[in-house]
């Protein structure tokens, strides 16, 4: 690996921080007295979060972030808000910016600034304040720091108060050459230039012939991709689409059966409860596939008229066996409804013999969030007993345009669907990425929740041991430019982290992320920061944390 950026968390890293602090601010810049130990522990050490730069486990750069007031700068110039030329709601102070003399070629400095900006944005800070040495005023300016207030310090060690915002960073050299985050999220999707252009085009009326033509083309592409007879597009997320399916199932006579092996199976039960539907559930442990024989025994009783399940369980990365569900429902004359939100666009989905299915634009189809779909194989009639917006029959009767539609969202999806003219090529690429991720994670000694036989290629779920924080790993990947999935409540509760393989990423970026993993998941000498609720999370407001303590 080259340079690695992370939040300091090991005893070795803190020891090196004290030494670099001494070399920089006692020996090089005479801000503090020298001492025999050649270490300098900052007076705010217990309140600092340190973003560091490592090269082969050697600390070569650091910066301290502190959100607790008063800032050290408050003590020098008075409350900073009185002198700032901009309005800020949540400022943070950054101090102790130091780069080892062997690494002052700009790369470490630039990387630290990029990591700092990512950190501050994620934590909700809107301005970073610093006292920068006047010796490097030009460099600070190139990075987007803007001077304000009077100089502080002494003649030998003079410092200029400066502020950095997202806007000033973007306008500086560092911002202009920064690469966007590499997207390993299961949504929002990475948007191609063609899709972006379609989204930003001048909108046109949903009542125009032009819109009818685009919508019909999109519907044809979606039904061709899934082998469904019909599809209706909704202005909303997958939750809306599943509400529409719940509305349709509420019209069916008889009792239902819902399968639950993850968060989104559980949400189906919530949809059904809100409609007052009569149903039972088959629940298995999260990450566990269903037993086909158990489902058969339930359906052969004749007690159920419909079955509702999830195809790709996003919360676990398990790909439930749709063909098995279809077979057993056909055998016993049961209507089948399927949440295919994370499956469509990531794997072959055959909706033949499926009564209802849902999907969205913003995941595997790689378009913008905002559209959802309900597929159906029989013609649907409207019902005056259902809420208008949730009545699938109203959409069908109006040829898919009962209410206002966004021409931009539909046009963007139309463009995104072009890559699915050869869908197997898309699925093969996703599968290849998933195999590489699985191999790298397992070689690093960690467990993937779903077995290879039951795993969805789209989402790899890493189950981390209790003594290692998925939040810290996710934050550190973020500081290095990789956006992975770990902040949802159901992942935090289980200490899981997910790497989604559904987005188009270059081989180079995938390899870089996989090479970085082993360096970030070493648990040697770990030191954790723990908030009062016992959850480890360095990017959440430093003032909330107890004193750093050994594991």
Automatic annotation (TrEMBL):
Family annotation (Gene3D superfamilies): 3.40.630.30, Aspartate Aminotransferase, domain 1 (3.90.1150.10), Type I PLP-dependent aspartate aminotransferase-like (Major domain) (3.40.640.10)
Organism from which the protein derives: Sporosarcina psychrophila
Keyword Repressor part of the UniProt annotation: no
Cofactor(s) this protein cannot do without: pyridoxal 5'-phosphate
Superkingdom of this protein's organism: Bacteria
Annotated InterPro entries: Acyl_CoA_acyltransferase, Aminotrans_V_dom, FeeM_cat, GNAT_dom, PyrdxlP-dep_Trfase, PyrdxlP-dep_Trfase_major, PyrdxlP-dep_Trfase_small
Domain (N-acetyltransferase): residue spans on this chain: 2-167
Keywords: Aminotransferase, Pyridoxal phosphate, Transferase
GO molecular function: acyltransferase activity, transferring groups other than amino-acyl groups; transaminase activity
The protein's name: Aminotransferase class V-fold PLP-dependent enzyme
């Amino acid at each position: 690996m080259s340079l690695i950026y992370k939040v300091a968390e090991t005893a070795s890293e803190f020891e090196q921080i004290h030494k670099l602090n001494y070399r920089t601010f006692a020996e090089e810049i005479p801000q503090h007295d020298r001492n025999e130990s050649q270490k300098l522990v900052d007076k705010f050490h217990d309140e600092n979060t340190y973003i560091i730069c490592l090269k082969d486990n050697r600390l070569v750069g650091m910066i301290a972030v502190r959100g607790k007031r008063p800032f050290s700068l408050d003590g020098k110039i008075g409350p900073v808000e009185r002198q700032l030329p901009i309005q800020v709601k949540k400022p943070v102070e950054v101090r102790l910016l130091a780069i080892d003399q062997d690494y002052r070629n700009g790369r470490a400095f630039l990387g630290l600034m990029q990591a700092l900006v990512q950190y501050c944005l994620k934590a909700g800070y809107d301005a970073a304040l610093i006292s920068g040495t006047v010796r490097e005023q030009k460099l600070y300016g190139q990075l987007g720091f803007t001077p304000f207030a009077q100089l502080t310090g002494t003649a030998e060690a003079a410092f200029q108060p400066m502020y950095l915002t997202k806007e000033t960073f973007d306008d500086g050299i560092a911002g202009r050459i920064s690469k966007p985050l590499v997207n390993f999220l299961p949504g929002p999707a990475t948007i191609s230039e063609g899709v972006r252009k379609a989204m930003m085009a001048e909108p046109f009326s949903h009542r125009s012939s032009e819109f009818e033509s685009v919508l019909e083309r999109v519907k044809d592409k979606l039904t061709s991709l899934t082998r469904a007879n019909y599809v209706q597009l909704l202005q909303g997320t997958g939750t809306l689409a599943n509400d529409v399916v719940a509305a349709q199932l509420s019209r069916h006579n008889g009792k239902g059966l819902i399968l639950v092996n993850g968060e989104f199976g559980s949400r189906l039960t919530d949809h059904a409860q809100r409609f007052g539907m009569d149903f039972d559930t088959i629940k298995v442990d999260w990450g566990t596939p269903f037993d086909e024989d158990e489902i058969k025994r339930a359906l052969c009783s004749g007690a159920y008229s419909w079955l509702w399940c999830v195809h790709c369980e996003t919360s676990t990365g398990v790909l439930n066996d749709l063909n098995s569900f279809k077979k057993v429902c056909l055998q016993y004359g049961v209507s089948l409804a399927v949440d295919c939100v994370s499956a469509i666009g990531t794997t072959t989905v055959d909706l033949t013999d499926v009564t209802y299915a849902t999907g969205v634009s913003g995941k595997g189809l790689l378009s913008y969030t905002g559209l959802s779909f309900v597929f159906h194989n029989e013609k649907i009639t409207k019902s005056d007993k259902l809420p208008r917006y949730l009545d699938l029959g109203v959409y069908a009767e109006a040829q898919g345009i009962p209410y206002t539609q966004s021409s931009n969202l539909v046009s963007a999806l139309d463009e995104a669907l072009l890559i699915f003219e050869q869908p197997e090529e898309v699925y093969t690429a996703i599968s290849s990425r998933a195999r590489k991720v699985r191999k790298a994670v397992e070689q690093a000694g960690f467990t993937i929740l779903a077995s290879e036989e039951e795993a969805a290629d789209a989402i790899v779920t890493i189950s981390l041991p209790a003594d290692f924080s998925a939040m810290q790993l996710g934050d550190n990947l973020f500081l290095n430019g990789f956006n992975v999935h770990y902040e949802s409540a159901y992942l935090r509760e289980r200490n899981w982290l997910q790497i989604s393989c559904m987005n188009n990423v270059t081989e180079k970026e995938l390899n870089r992320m996989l090479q970085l993993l082993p360096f970030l998941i070493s648990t040697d000498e770990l030191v954790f920061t723990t908030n009062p609720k016992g959850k480890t999370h360095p990017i959440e407001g430093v003032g909330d944390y107890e004193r750093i303590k050994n594991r």
